[in-house]
Amino acid sequence: AAAPAAVRPAPSTTRQQTASGGSERPAASPDEAPDGDDIAVVGMGLALPGASDPDTFWRALLDGPELFGNVPPDRWDYRSFYSPDPSAEDKSYQSRSVFIEHFDPCPTVRAELDAGTAPRELTTLWLRHALCQSLDGVALREADRVAFLVGYTADGSQHLEEGMVLAAARERLNAVLIDAGVDAAERERRVAAIDAVLSARYARGAGDLASFFPHRVGLNAMKGVLPDSAQCMMVDTACSSSLYSIDLGIKALLLGKQDVVACGGAFALAPRGSVLFSKLHGLSRSGEVRPLDRNCDGVLFADGAGVVILKRLARARADGDRILGVLKSFGSSSDGKGKAIYAPNSAGQRIAIDRAYARTATVPADVDWVVAHATGTPAGDLAEFQSLRDAIRRDRPVQVTSNKSLVGHTGWAAGVVSVIQVLLGLRHQMIPPQHRFSEPPPEFDIAGTNLRIPVAPVSWPVRSESARVAAVSGFGFGGTNGHLIVSEYRADLPAGRASGRFKREPLAIVGWSAKFPGLDGDAEVAAWLRGEGRAPDASFGIGYPLPSFARVKMPPAVLRALDRCQLMALDAAHDLREHLGAFWREHADTIGLVMGHMGPTRNAALYASRCYLDDIAAAVRDATRPDERAATESVLAALREATKQLVAPTTENSFPGMMPNVIPARVANYHDLHGMNMTVDAGHASTLAAFEAAERFLCSGELDMAIVGGINGNSSEEVRPAFGLPLAEGIVLFAVTTVRCARAEGLPVLAVVGGGDARAAVEPAA
To answer: Which stretches does the entry tag as region Disordered (predicted)?
Structure first.
């Protein structure tokens, strides 16, 4: 596939960029460049409320325009999903948020829009725009191994949400009419009439439902922009997702797996998320977001997308790319046990921060500015400030800001948006002010720290003796923490070197556990796979069998609110922990989880249908003839009853209970594990992608073991029409470590995957 015209071929001879952006001396070859293990950012692009490019974003960061507002009429009718009563069933108490309303596409996407060939799905469109923008002027070579790594969730697409609602309404309306004894011809007429109304109401969801699934969003965003051979992986660690996509890109470059990596994230607002998040009482009541301020009262989410382009520094210098900044190190962690899986955990955040500085020569005292995750929730902001207060100590002031007061919380894109803010600050030698800020909460005890929250722009000039350094934090729902250190590029100063191994080596599978419908335990699974036992059922059915209290010590009310994928993961992890014994207990701090999962969970799909019931009824009633109103009301009542039987009313456990990223996070939380955890989506190849991601953390030395899995628990009417094949349910977990670690710990090597000579890897040690 051809790249955009703005992408240039890599020159054979280039000039070296200096700190001031000039070009003074020839670059060294990649093999000779004294760049250590630094990673260069050579491109950036974005689509945000009030800004369709980095320059406009910078002006907004300085000026602080008002971007919060009510739901645009062309997105959805907020009245169907809103109630001022926070306890109202399946309603949100907040109608305001931050939307992309005046999108100004880059020339490539503008031409596609004019030609009618641009993607319809919003996050695909915004990602494509950001990707094209970020590649402007970046040198690519024909043989480059390229990857596109995107922080994303199936819960962040209005098109997918509406598409699932449409698909389920068709299926359930037909079933309702069959149960009512309506003959085939009349049933077909009535379903077609209602379907026409709903297809017009939810026009974004009409068409190819599969094209709205996460992996297809990534593939369609990069089609014709990156090579067809480019790896595409969607990464889900909730609000830290795009930081983890950057970390995976860094590791791919340092392990020699890729030459150029595009990393970022995207998120689009839709009604269900607001409804479910309001049951956590986490949405702002005032209709604005005031991070780090004593009057903060909650978060509001926002549309957004961003992409950065990464290369090894030697390669960027050789190509003559404009180097926007250098990525020094990333620290990751899971919170482990805590008050609740959605409760902020300062100790877990501190682990990620400390790990970031442990892997680089950069120390906390070098940091000038922290772009905090700070979402404007009182408990979350306090927990984060406490972790920064303890970790970032220096004699000079350290500025702390959050861009969510300006553009809202862009969810799975939030991390990359903050990275772009840092890169702009480096370019303009300035730290923007904190908007909507008057004074910090007294609990911050800010007077006793070196941390400062600026109310006006702060000069950030180039220093002769050292590079300017900033840090970006991202703390995801479910306890997925990340801290990224970003430095300016200085050709006149020595480059750093990461302390990790970053050496590819073979991996060993040392244990496994599985759960399938109708099979009792791993022994029956093994018998089926050997062809000696019965095959599993396709689905667990409408009601998933809750694990016993002896296996999962959680209140039944909480268990019933969890998607079956989270329950399966807890169940299978129990058996795997028993198999690993002492190793699990002794290495809890360095055991991570990577789960392959495609699309939305079952609970996410069912909650979409449940939350839209009033909107469906309003649309159908408006289009119903007077003589058919009684019959229509009967059908709507039956549809409501059928839908509500499938999933419980929304509570504080519903939002975390449906999220794909919380599948592995739930295991980390329950078993008090502190390695990273993430969900990856590569469609039907998601389990293979999970192994690919896990390899990067194991070969960098960050994990001693990765619990790698593949899972599906969603065969509902909402997603069944998306694929031309039956959908089955089940989970398989694998315990994966390096062969070297397996030998040292006396763990059984059941199979070898990854780099190196597999035969040599499994030979007994001398």
So the answer is: 1-38
Per-residue pLDDT reduced to its tens digit, 116-171: 999 999 999 999 999 999 999 999 999 999 999 999 999 999 999 999 999 999 99
Span 206-232, average pLDDT: 97
Lowest mean pLDDT of 233-247, 492-506, 681-695, name the range: 492-506
Distance from the first to the final alpha carbon of the chain: 49
Structure tokens at 276: 């479910």
Q: How confident is the model at residue 32 (pLDDT cuts 50, 70, 90)?
A: very low
d(Cα 689, Cα 595) in Å, to the nearest integer? 9
Please state the three-class secondary structure of 529-566 as a single string.
HCCCCCCCCCCCCCCCCCCCCCCCCCCHHHHHHCCHHH
Residue 726 or residue 746, greater confidence: 746
Unique residue bearing structure tokens 């062969």: 739
Angle at 496 between CA 491 and CA 501, to 5 degrees: 145
CA-based R_g, the chain, Å: 26
CA dihedral 5, 148, 67, 280 (to 10 degrees): 170
Distance CA 566, CA 554 (A): 12
CA 716 to CA 729: how far, in whole Å? 11
- Over residues 513-543, the pLDDT tens digits come to 999 999 999 999 999 999 999 999 999 999 8
* Token output for 155: 């819960």
Q: What is the pLDDT of residue 755?
A: 60
From CA 224, how far away is CA 178, in angstroms rounded? 46
Q: And the tokens for 422?
A: 């840092």
Q: How far apart are CA 542 and CA 646, in angstroms?
A: 7
Q: How many residues does the chain have?
A: 766
Residue 736 CA to residue 753 CA, distance in Å, equals 9
What is the band of 496 on the pLDDT scale with cuts at 50, 70, 90?
low
Query: What's the confidence (pLDDT) of residue 5?
Result: 44
| Separation between Cα atoms, residue 735 and residue 508, nearest integer Å | 8
Q: Is 129 helix (H, G, I), strand (E, B) or coil?
A: helix
Q: For the residues of 159-214, what is the DSSP string, one character each?
A: HHHHHHHHHHHHHHHHHHHHHTT--HHHHHHHHHHHHHHHHHHTGGG-S-GGGGSH
Reported as a pLDDT band with limits 50, 70 and 90, residue 6 is low
Residue at token pair 């109401």? 201
User: Is residue 30 exposed (0-12), middle (13-18) or buried (19+ Cβ within 10 Å)?
Assistant: middle
| Element (DSSP H or E) covering residue 331 | strand 325-334
Element (H, E) at 378: helix 378-391
Is the pLDDT score of 497 beyond 70? no
Three-class SS of residue 469? strand
Rounded CA-CA distance 335/349 in Å is: 7
Residue recorded with tokens 């482990």: 336
214 token code pair:
């996460």
